[in-house]
Amino acid sequence: MRRLLAILLLILAIATFLATLVSIYPADYWLIRTVDLVREPLTYAVLVLGILALLVNGMGRWVAVALFGVTALINTWRIWPYSALAGEEIPQITAADAEAAQCFTALSVNVKVKNTDFDQVAAQIEEVSPDILLLMETDANWISELRGVLSDYSYTLEEPQPHAFGMVFASRLPAVDARMVENTSRDTPTLYATVNLPNGEDFEFIGLHPKPPLPGWNTEERDANIVRAGTETPASDGDALVMGDFNDVPWSRTTTRFREEGGWRDPRIGRGTYPTFPANLTVLGWPLDQIMLRGALDLRDFRVMPDNGSDHRAIRATLCQGDRAQG
Questions:
Q1: Reported confidence tier of residue 90, pLDDT bands at 50, 70, 90
Q2: Is 86 a member of any domain?
Q3: What is the number of structural domains in the chain?
């Protein structure tokens, strides 16, 4: 039995090392890109397996330990900026600074189109009462069930779809030039809107939900959608906020390119990974739902919300625009 365990650990060590090594290569094949999504739980797993291999005498013991160790180091290197030990990219402003600024709340919710826990989602929206609300995976049934909470918003833009890429944008702040655009795929809209603040300033809001890497769905279109949404905003030199289910993690080469080419700042950097999927196991999950800022927007708070019955956790943020905001 000990010999079989040693052989199994060696096979796992080789497999996880090769998968991690291949995932660094800039390929679009869905299976390779999926490794990016699970780097954090994979790191925990190989560390545990490495300790187990260290305790088991048998064939290839030290090879397995070394491979597990190298795999953990590679993945840790990729996700390090999103560790709480790294420096924060966006400092959190104080309550006093927030009082002197123009602040608003935003909530992004992937409802899961097949989910029927309408009341839980509605209750969470009512509890947060965000100024800006983005809903994803909304079909006609979801929009009908949430009509009560949506009626509290002065502006709504809806694009229901029967499968998984419907979208709803709702705002209590004045929104102009709001539209759903099919950047790359016929059935995956991207939202663009200009939102006016009471102080006379405005910012661009972008809602994004591209297709995930799945069998038959490689990532060329997803990657193009993400990067294009970040660089081709209507007011590319102004303040902007992007939210949504990217179906990608912040440390991937695609979302990193989105952030760097578009000049975006990520509140997760230096704070933690804040996993949002799967909702019932976020300790071992990964952060598919993103929020990023650009221009003179500051962060008052950012949090992952409690389970609302969907397979994703919602994300909530309070953003402020004021004299001390960073450009």
A1: very high
A2: no
A3: 2
Kindly state whether residue 90 falls inside one of the protein's structural domains: no
List the domain range (segments joined by +) for residue 207.
Answer: 95-321
Closest-CA residue to 259 (of 136, 81, 87) = 81
Percent residues over pLDDT 70 in the chain: 89
Q: Please state the rounded mean pLDDT for residues 80-87.
A: 91
pLDDT per residue as tens digits for the range 195-221: 999 888 899 999 999 887 666 655 566
Q: The whole model's pTM is what?
A: 0.88
Which residues 6+ apart lie within 8 Å of 28 measured at CB? 218, 219, 220, 223
Residue 87 within a domain: no
**Three-class HEC string of the chain:** CHHHHHHHHHHHHHHHHHHHHHHHCCCCCHHHHHHHHCHHHHHHHHHHHHHHHHHCCCCCHHHHHHHHHHHHHHHHHHHHHHCCCCCCCCCECCHHHHHCCEEEEEEEEECCCCCCCHHHHHHHHHHHCCCEEEEECCCHHHHHHCHHHHCCCCEEEEECCCCCCCEEEEECCCEEEEEEECCCCCCCCEEEEEEECCCCCEEEEEEECCCCCECCECCHHHHHHHHHHHHCCCCCCCCEEEEEECCCCCCCHHHHHHHHHHCCECCCCCCCCCCCECHHHHHHCECCEEEEEECCCEEEEEEECCCCCCCCCCEEEEEEECCCCCC
